[in-house]
Write a structure and sequence with these properties.
Radius of gyration: 25 Å
CATH class of the largest domain: Alpha Beta
Structural class: alpha+beta
Helix content: 25-40%
Shape: globular
Number of strands: 13
Number of helices: 9
CATH architecture of the largest domain: 2-Layer Sandwich
Strand content: 15-25%
Largest sheet: 7 strands, antiparallel
CATH topology of the largest domain: Alpha-D-Glucose-1,6-Bisphosphate, Chain A, domain 4
């Protein structure tokens, strides 16, 4: 038995050394993101999969399955599947990436509802679990996932990482938020993807304790996911996608973004001035909200309003639900006695001073005055947006 064990170890080492000569792996690989069991499941148990392979169709109280009901259900499932591949036959070029400075977004010649289904299928096919889905606001958000391409390749760790899966992991996690909006042209949809990252760091000298903390958004990951989603809409195969990747994304370099600055509003509050038109400023503010991690509950483009939610990170009930999110970074300015009500909604106004810009961005005060909010948190919100708009 000991001899067989030693032979097995030698085989594993030989295979691991051989991996050192394999080509470099893809820079992005979330293939196992959706396969890890949730934390509330004991390690020796696994949750049954959500497959419908063993699920009986809905049966009336009589115990007899009616063919018309089952057939209607099957047709509905086929319709949903067809929406995921909504592309016209023989059509290419219905999706394109547009760029404004280092901000990119996807424009597809597909109605918003069908674009939603294709985008949802895209994330699931890439191994992500969707944590939030809200077709009304056009926002979907993935759960935190590990980029397995960051596991060292060509070494014993790389081999063990691929063979043993979650037993070897990386100290980084990624989350993506996707926002869909009706495009300015009829029948088009604008799709924005923003990245948020976390990194695990040691918090004790003996390296016995770690903590997860936010890391900067990665525009290269956002651009790569947009490119892959574009290929999804255009029906490009994996082989074609690799060839196209070698040629670049074909997106022309746009001029640098016009500057944004903070000034004082007429009533003494804070206000951002973006030297850009309303259309471009609206997109930039939306991307900034996504990157910072605000919860956008609603938006009215015709009024130039974003409705965002603030969650008090000091609220224990909120912490238990895990709703603190990035808003925890706003807690540093508050005193212990300065409590903010949980789940407060704020309105962010985007309005042109004149046609073609510049554009003012303010947090509106409660009520219908239309003036800027003069509270400390309103200024902090604008500070966070300014970091992204510069």
């Amino acid at each position: 038995m000991n001899k067989l064990f030693r032979v097995g170890i030698l085989i594993l080492v030989a295979l691991a050394v051989g991996c050192a000569y394999l080509p470099e792996s893809k820079k992005i690989d979330y293939g196992t993101a959706a396969k890890a069991p949730p934390l509330d499941i004991p390690p020796d148990l696994t949750r049954p999969s959500n497959t419908t392979q063993y699920t009986a169709p809905n049966v009336p109280s009589s115990g007899v399955a009616v063919y018309s009901q089952v057939n209607a259900k099957n047709k509905a499932a086929q319709t949903q599947k067809s929406d995921e591949s909504v592309l016209p036959d023989g059509s290419r070029g219905i999706a394109r990436i547009e760029r404004q400075g280092n901000h990119r977004w996807l424009v597809v010649t597909v109605p918003e509802d069908k674009a939603w289904n294709v985008t949802k299928a895209f994330w699931q096919e890439n191994g992500f679990v969707l944590k939030k889905e809200n077709p009304q606001t056009g926002i979907m958000e993935t759960d935190w996932a590990e980029n397995r391409a960051n596991v060292p390749a060509g070494a014993i760790q790389g081999f063990l990482g691929k063979v043993l899966g979650t037993l070897y992991s990386t100290p980084e996690r990624d989350m993506y938020r996707t926002r869909l909006e009706k495009g300015p042209q009829a029948g088009t949809t604008d799709i924005f993807i923003s990245h948020r990252g976390m990194v695990e760091v040691y918090v004790s000298e003996g390296k016995s304790e770690t903590r997860w903390q936010p890391r900067d958004a990665d525009p290269t990951l956002e651009a790569e996911m947009l490119r892959r989603l574009m290929f999804k809409f255009d029906g490009v195969s994996d082989t074609e996608a690799k060839e196209l990747a070698k040629k670049g994304d074909g997106v022309p370099t746009a001029k640098a973004l016009d500057k944004a600055r903070m000034v004082q509003s007429p009533n003494g509050g804070a206000m951002l001035v973006v030297d850009d038109s309303f259309d471009r400023s609206w997109r930039r503010v939306g991307l900034a909200l996504d990157r910072v991690g605000f919860t956008v509950e609603d938006r009215e483009r015709n009024l130039g309003l974003y409705y965002v939610r603030y969650v008090d990170s000091d609220d224990k009930s909120v912490q238990e639900k895990g709703e603190g999110g990035f808003w925890a970074s706003l807690a540093f300015w508050r005193s212990k006695d300065d409590k903010v009500p949980t789940k407060v909604q704020y309105r962010i106004s985007v309005a042109e001073q004149k046609v073609g810009g510049p554009t003012n961005v303010i947090v509106l005060a409660p009520g219908d005055s239309g003036q800027a909010d003069v509270s400390p948190i309103a200024r902090q919100i604008l500070d966070l947006l300014l970091q992204q708009l510069r």
